[in-house]
Every structure is written in C-alpha cells, then in structure tokens.
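> call design_seq(struct)
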C-alpha cells in the first residue's frame, strides 16, 4: 500500500503539502493540487481515515439511535438516513435504545464517544428535559418521531393524532360503530396521540368510547394477538379494529382466524405505519402510512446542515395518509 511519503516524492512536494491538499485545511495552488492528486491516483494511495479525522476533527460517521434495528418500522427509517449519509460520503454508526431510558442514553453516549459527526435519533423513553440537554451539545442532533415544544426545528415528526382520526373515520364511513382500538404502550407519545385521534373521531360521530374496547399492547405481533383474544372474550359486538401498528394488526389477524372469523366480512381492521408486511397479509391491510424513509432523509439533511453550519429549509412536519386495501368492508 502506498504511503504519503511516496505520494510526496512522486509529486515533488512535502508530506505536509500532500496532507493540506487531501484535507483541504490550507489553500494550495491549483498546479500543486493537480500534481498531488495525479500522484495519489497513480499510486492508489488511500489516506488513513483516523489520521484525517484528527486533522479535520471529523470522523465521517453519522450516528443513528433507534428503538430496535430488527423492526421493519425502523428499517425503513434507517434506509432513508443511510441514503442521505451515503450521498454525503458518510457511513452509519447504529445503536438500539429498546425504548428504555437508560439504554437510549447509553446509545446516544456510545455514538458520541465514537466521534459521530452528527446524530439522528428516534427516542421514546427519555424525557423532554434530557433531550433538550442533548440538543445543547456541540454534536448536531435531530430527533425523529418526537416533537419538542420550542425546539421544533430540531425535530422531524408526524401528526399521529390525525392518523388516529383517519383510521377511525374510515371505519365509521363503512358503517362500523363498535370499533376497538389496540394501542401501543401508553408511555409512548405516539400511542397516546393515536388513541386521542381514535377517541376524537368517535366523539365527532356522536359515539362514546368504550373503555372495554381499548386494549394496551406492545407494538409486536404477539401483543396484537393477545389483545385481539381479549377483545373476543369481552364479546362486546366488535365489528372493527384500529390497531396501533401493522405488526399488532398481523397478530390480530391470527387471533381472528383462530376464532373462525373472516377478515373483513366479520371484522374489519386498519393498521398503522404501512410497512412491507401490510402488502403481504391476506387480505392486504388497509393502514395509515407514515413516510418513514422520507422522514429519515429529512432528518439526515437537517443534521448535515447543522454540521455544515448552513441554513437549509428542511421539512419538519409530515402528514399521515390512509392506504386503502382489502381489510375493511361495509358493515353487513
């Protein structure tokens, strides 16, 4: 492997001049720059990334902290982050917070300790006060899926209450009035916002939310399965279900089929997120789409703009959309 000394000898300049050209720290004449770059190409020289980082105070790494890297939800989000990072010549460092405050804090500290140039984080358990402290640190941080009042410019978020309204209104429009809601964990802002939208739509239709028909689960397939079993045991004449995400909707599908019920003829279901799974359930799942990949891209662009100290217009607020497929039918 070629060394910087060999490059400097071939270009007829000092090692320091080669370093200045490659790192861009000090202006170098076009003629000398051309000679150095020609020598680099001829010798196939690759600068030491760590050494370059010491000079530029940049690592070339973008840190990403999410709940669970195995989740299809976060896979879409990370895909968007990665696309923008690659376009900027950067690589990802990823950690999982598992929606636990101490693990989220540990994940953010891990990424900072590895000298991430900027951070994109989906944080659910850490309180607002802790996140505001992280926003004040030198490393640029953009939050995804979280809205901090007074710090909206550092957040990329979705109006989940509107999403809950859209899902519930769709079921109401199909004649359903006994509508159940399988929520995610109530400690999560997203879960609470979707539930508010669900209850708001019912009240707007002149209906009173029935507490027996609101079951808290865990955003996982097994949680959706158990919640649907519980709803069937209540036997309250449920004809439709709004599941707080697509994975719980898939679990509800399994419980209904196990009970000998048909989707959507006996029970209609609406999910939330529009992950890949929604298109391959049978029947295909009507759901609320979160533009997760676009949100990941927007968050990364905002983080890189902060890193470059540039004023860039970045979209912060996203709207959910109903994706109408086959899992909802008119009440018979």
């Amino acid at each position: 492997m070629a060394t910087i000394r060999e490059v400097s000898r071939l270009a007829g300049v000092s090692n320091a001049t080669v370093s200045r050209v490659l790192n861009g720290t000090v202006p170098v004449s076009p003629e000398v720059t051309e000679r150095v770059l020609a020598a680099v190409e001829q010798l196939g020289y690759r600068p030491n990334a760590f050494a370059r980082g010491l000079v530029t105070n940049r690592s070339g790494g973008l840190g990403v902290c999410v709940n669970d890297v195995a989740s299809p939800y976060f896979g879409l989000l990370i895909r968007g982050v990665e696309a923008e990072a690659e376009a900027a010549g950067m690589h990802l460092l990823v950690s999982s917070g598992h929606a636990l405050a101490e693990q989220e804090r540990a994940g953010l500290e891990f990424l900072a300790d590895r000298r991430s140039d900027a951070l994109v984080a989906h944080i659910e358990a850490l309180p607002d006060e802790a996140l505001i402290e992280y926003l004040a640190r030198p490393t640029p941080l953009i939050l995804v899926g979280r809205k901090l009042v007074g710090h909206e410019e550092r957040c990329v978020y979705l109006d989940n209450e509107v999403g809950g309204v859209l899902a519930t209104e769709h079921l109401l429009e199909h004649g359903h009035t006994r509508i159940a809601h399988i929520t995610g964990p109530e400690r999560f802002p997203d879960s609470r916002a979707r539930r508010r939208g669900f209850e708001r739509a019912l009240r707007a239709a002149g209906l009173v939310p029935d507490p027996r028909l609101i079951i808290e689960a865990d955003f996982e397939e097994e949680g959706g399965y158990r919640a649907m079993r519980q709803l069937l045991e209540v036997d309250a004449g449920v004809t439709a279900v709004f599941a707080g995400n697509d994975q719980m909707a898939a679990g509800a599908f399994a419980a209904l089929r196990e009970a000998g019920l048909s989707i959507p003829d006996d029970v209609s279901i609406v999910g939330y997120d529009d992950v890949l799974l929604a298109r391959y359930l049978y029947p295909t799942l009507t759901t609320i789409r979160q533009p997760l990949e676009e949100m990941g891209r927007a968050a990364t662009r905002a983080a890189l703009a902060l890193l470059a100290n540039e004023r860039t217009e970045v979209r912060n607020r996203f709207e959910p959309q109903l994706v109408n497929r086959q899992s909802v039918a008119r009440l018979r």
